[in-house]
Write a structure and sequence with these properties.
The complex is a heterotrimer. Chain A has eleven helices and two strands, in the order H-H-H-H-E-E-H-H-H-H-H-H-H. Chain A is mainly α. The chains are: A mainly alpha, B mainly alpha, C alpha/beta.
Chain lengths: ~290, ~325, ~425
């Protein structure tokens, strides 16, 4: 592969990687900080994507749709966590398997409801920035990737600042480290966790919109993203927002190089291969606690 | 000490029933659908050995199943191997995979183990995508040979074969459950550190359970190419197998060999009926809803409900 | 402590009972009826549905025509149709159901190569007559003697030949091949690969991709880096759309004189409309175009009737691609059944093999593997396409036929000239 082609692949990989970071940031919070086996996270992403598609039918720009749906998803996240906590977290050792099975079941139900509502056909959105590219030197960068890149940066940096800057944010980080201590400080750990899960689910609205901007979606897409999101969340080091960005970029570059040199048939294995590697070598991830 | 006699009698009765059905039922589609139900008995039982007994949740059941199927395809294409050889080879390959997965438990617990099993499944699928000999992404067609004298069609032969494999799987599961192996696995499920500290050979037991589980799933997959006459990676490695293999024991009850059987027969039959009468999407919806419902309301499964009811009646 | 054996015999009895009830339920569902039932699955959802739905409308028009004329053998004709969702893994189950539960009298293949390949073993095992519906080369290995494909392709090599001829015309020396790893694309790409030497072409890039790939910019970049003269693509509707959009977005480079070839989906009205000007200069196969060299007897009348129905049914409004051929499938069955006065698959197969069939897509003769003896696939070049305009495609001049010579209505222009 020529140097020029490699350079292009890396640039594309960085853009792709930031997009991967954006879709994984919710999982970093839910799974990384709260230890919830949120295997339905990719399904919620696809739900967000279809939300943007549906609102796009009324003429709304997908990013705007994503922003509008964020409070809806946030409230849903609050409810889901409340239910999850009451049913599983309180009940003891066996709850691990059942909690996991619960979210798996939820992911399936979401996928089927999408098929029943929208059909199995691929859906896409139209926007001014989809389909065009800008030329930077010899490179031609697709605008939709640049948009995803920008939004992803805002999302991850914003969340990072929130977690370290605000009281609630720090409470969330504290509850991940030591619940009892937090309770002794006067904050209710369950409510803090519920709030955090709400935020994690809320990000799925905007990240889902990014999903449909970057490529057409169909209901089964969540299955592909289980690998990518968990790879990024684990590689990041559970709960680290800057880590999520870095991990996303690493994955993006790896996938881009494999796509360009070996072709698409090996691409699905990149995320999972990287994940297995991380689990074998350094399960705590790059920036792990 | 468990009594084996009623169990063996029951197993023989079930096999005889399968043979009789193969002889006298005229509708071919019955065997087409019945095969799937029997196959799920094997898959669910296999899953439960590692998942229910030992507590390690395998989300990659599809990979072991497909590994068995693709081993069979490779043998058919390469050596025109007979069915029994295919099954043996499938058991070997999937058993080895199971062993490797069991070794993963050294480092990974809980959800990390489960995610790792998904990773193994996807990587296997990608390897198969790129393996042109067995058809790659296009898939491979396999012609069924002529059915031997006793059977009206080859599908019936496969139906009876799968009934036999189901019985064997359940025998193995029951043996594990009632022996010292089962007790060790239960100790691991309840508290692995404590078990280790009192001298339970946790690694050996986990490796055994994982290998047995994998091998059985591979055996379930080996006749699949002949059954469908066609195989392609996306459906062979489908997440549906993983979720079904997990849902059926959870719904039936993970504590004993009977749970996966109940779950497989019930859920499998419902799935087949829904597919024929309604649609295949609703089939997946039924699976998801039942899984969630049982996980929330009846964590011990149908077996648990039965025991509660029977216990209440019996204790009077 | 409860022994795990308690209740075991009861459990086994319950299982056997459940299986028996199940057997009875399935058995009861299957009944015999007096209409002649023709069973098939067709893509009504999924990527192939753009054409699949239109083909179904054509078959329904045929069924209504036949029934209005008194039916076949004095019996009404009924279509039993399932949606295979464009998914190859669904068809074996569906056809088993059609044969054993619905007990149909005749079967027609699913639309397109990928969903048809999986049912070939089943059809051969049961020795059934199968009318193919736009499947490329699925019988080459299996060699079933009762398979008759209704599509103008003939073999993959015959179909690739006009495209290779165009490569010679533009003076190409190097070629890049991009093909989906699926039955149709690989068959067609195989035809091209086999003819490279004779056409004097050097392959500088040859990649397959898995069928559910959505992201092609890396591959487009890699192709561009090799500066090929020709890019041959064999793809299915979703990938075709993604590839055309990707090329439109980041460019394929200035060296490419010929782009396209075997992209399914660029014949569907909905896709043509949504791609619009991104199609300009692309050369691709088609079965029919509204050009003066393809004005066969009966086809214009059929299209008028089809387009009226299509509007109501909300399917492909033009109907150039699949509908005439699906109506012709019906005509094949009508002619064979009426001439032999039989529904026996052996008898019908013998008739079709030995006789000429007159249809609205011309007179058909079958070759030894069940393909048309004389191929009639054409290659068109998209010219002067504007965005978001469906009606422009109704007129001549938008899909200029550039090969083979027998049907040519214009000379091919180099891709890099058209897309300057």
């Amino acid at each position: 592969m020529s140097f020029e082609l490699l350079g292009e692949a890396i640039v594309a990989g960085v853009l792709l990687g930031c997009f991967y970071a954006a879709v994984s940031v919710g999982l970093s919070v839910a799974f990384g900080l709260l230890d919830v086996p949120q295997i339905a996270h990719p399904a919620f992403l696809v739900l967000g994507a279809y939300g943007a598609y549906w609102l796009g039918g009324f003429g709304l720009d997908p990013l705007l749709a994503g922003v509008l749906l964020t409070p809806v998803f946030f409230l849903a996240g609050l409810a889901v966590y409340r239910f999850y906590h009451a049913t599983f977290e309180r009940r003891g050792t066996d709850a691990g398997l059942r909690g996991l099975a619960f979210f798996f079941g939820v992911a399936f139900i979401v996928e089927v409801m999408l098929i029943l509502s929208f059909g199995v056909d691929q859906r896409m959105v139209e926007a001014a920035y989809i389909g065009k590219s800008i030329a930077v030197g010899d490179l031609r960068l697709p605008l939709r990737m640049l948009v995803a890149f920008g939004v992803a940066l805002i999302l991850t940096i914003g969340l990072s600042l929130y977690l370290s800057g605000t009281f609630t944010g720090r409470a969330i980080k504290a509850v991940a480290q030591d619940q009892t201590a937090l309770a002794l400080m006067g904050a209710d750990p369950v409510r803090v966790k519920q709030w955090a899960f709400g935020i994690a689910t809320g990000t799925c609205a905007l990240a889902g919109a990014l999903l449909i901007i970057v490529a057409p979606v169909e209901p089964g897409l969540g299955r592909l993203y289980i690998g990518r999101t968990f790879c990024v969340a684990v590689l990041a080091g559970l709960g680290s927002m800057p880590g999520t960005l870095v991990a996303g970029i690493i994955l993006g570059i790896a996938e881009s190089i494999v796509l360009t040199s070996l072709g698409a048939s090996w691409a699905p294995a990149v995320a999972f291969g990287l994940l297995l590697l991380v689990l074998a070598v350094r399960p705590a991830g790059l920036f792990g606690r | 000490m468990a009594r084996w006699t009623p169990f063996i009698v029951g197993a023989v009765v079930a096999l005889a029933a399968a043979l009789l059905l193969a002889r006298f039922v005229s509708n071919e589609y019955f065997f087409f659908a019945g095969y799937v139900v029997l196959q799920f008995i094997v898959l669910a039982t296999a899953w439960n050995i590692l998942g229910g007994y030992a507590g390690y949740v395998n989300f990659g059941s599809g990979a072991f199943f497909a590994a068995g199927a693709y081993t069979a395809v490779a043998l058919i294409k390469g050596f025109a191997a007979p069915l029994l050889v295919q099954i043996a080879a499938a058991a070997l390959v999937s058993g080895l995979m199971g062993f490797a997965v069991g070794a993963m438990t050294l480092r990974l617990r809980g959800i990390f183990f489960s995610i790792a099993t998904v990773a193994v499944a996807v990587i296997c699928e990608t390897v198969v995508f790129n393996w042109g000999f067995v058809g790659g992404a296009r898939g491979a067609t396999v012609l069924q040979p002529e059915a031997p004298a006793l059977f009206a069609s080859y599908t019936r032969l496969l139906f009876v074969l799968m009934a036999l494999l189901a019985v064997l799987a359940v025998v193995l599961a029951r043996y594990i459950e009632t022996s010292w192996i089962g007790r060790g696995l239960q100790a691991i499920r309840d508290n692995e550190e404590a078990a280790e500290s009192v001298g339970v050979p946790t690694l050996k037991l986990k490796l055994f359970a994982a290998t047995a589980s994998g091998a059985l799933m591979g055996i379930a997959g080996a006749p699949f190419p002949l059954y469908m006459s066609f195989i392609e990676p996306t459906s062979a490695f489908s997440l549906n197998y993983a979720v079904s293999a997990l849902a059926m024991p959870i719904i039936g009850g993970t504590a004993s060999w009977a749970g996966p059987v109940i779950g497989a027969v019930l859920l499998g039959s419902v799935q087949q009926i829904v597919t024929v009468t309604l649609s295949s999407e609703l089939n997946v919806l039924v699976l998801g809803v039942l899984l969630v419902a049982f996980v929330i309301a009846a964590p011990e499964g149908i077996l648990g409900l039965y025991r509660r009811v029977a216990g209440k009646a019996g204790s009077k | 402590m409860n022994s795990p054996c308690r209740g075991v015999p009861a459990m086994f009895a319950a299982i056997v009972a459940a299986l028996s009830v199940f057997a009875l339920a399935v058995g009861a569902h299957a009944q015999t009826k007096t209409p002649i039932r023709i069973g098939l699955s067709i893509a009504q959802t999924g990527p192939l549905s753009g054409a699949g739905k239109s083909g179904l409308v054509a078959l329904q028009i045929w069924r209504d025509d036949v029934n209005a004329g008194g039916g076949l053998l004095g019996r009404q004709v009924e279509l039993v149709v399932y949606d295979d969702q464009s998914n190859p893994s669904m068809t074996p189950g569906i056809y088993s159901k059609l044969l054993d539960v619905d007990k149909v009298d005749l079967v027609v293949a699913p639309y397109a190569t990928n969903p048809t390949a999986p049912i070939m073993p089943l059809v051969k095992q049961r020795d059934l007559l199968l009318i193919g519906n736009f499947a490329l080369d699925v019988n080459a290995q299996i060699r079933h003697d009762k398979y008759f494909n209704n599509q103008p392709w003939a073999s993959a090599r015959d179909s690739a030949a006009p495209f290779l001829g165009l490569c010679k015309k533009v003076g190409a020396k190097t070629i890049a091949i991009l093909a989906a790893d699926a039955e149709f694309a690989q068959n067609l790409a195989g035809g091209v690969r086999a003819g490279l030497k004779e056409a004097g072409l050097d392959s500088v890039y040859d990649q397959n991709y898995p069928p559910n790939t959505v992201e092609f910019s890396s591959m487009v970049r890699a192709i561009r880096a090799r500066n090929p003269d020709v890019v041959f693509v064999a793809s299915y509707p979703s990938d075709s759309t993604a590839i055309i959009r990707s090329v439109n977005e980041i460019g394929i480079g200035n060296s490419v004189k010929l782009f396209g070839g075997g992209m399914v989906g660029l014949q569907y009205a909905s896709i043509m409309e949504s791609l619009g000007s991104a199609l300009n200069g692309v050369v691709n196969y088609n079965t029919w175009a509204p050009e003066k060299t393809m004005d066969f007897p009966g086809i214009k009348d059929f299209l008028v009737r089809y387009q009226a129905k299509a509007k109501q049914a909300n399917v492909d409004p033009l109907g150039f691609y699949l509908p005439p051929f699906d109506y012709a499938i019906g005509q094949i069955l009508t002619q064979a059944v009426t001439a032999t006065q039989s529904l026996d698959h052996k008898v019908l197969a013998k008739y079709i093999r030995e006789h000429e069939i007159k249809t609205i897509v011309g007179t058909i003769r079958y070759g030894p593997t069940g393909e048309w003896a004389n191929p009639r696939i054409v290659y068109v070049q998209f010219r002067d396409i504007a965005d978001k305009n469906l009606d422009q495609f109704r007129n001549a001049g938008k899909q200029v036929i550039v090969a083979p010579d027998a049907f040519k209505t214009g000379e091919v222009s180099a891709f890099n000239q058209v897309r300057r």
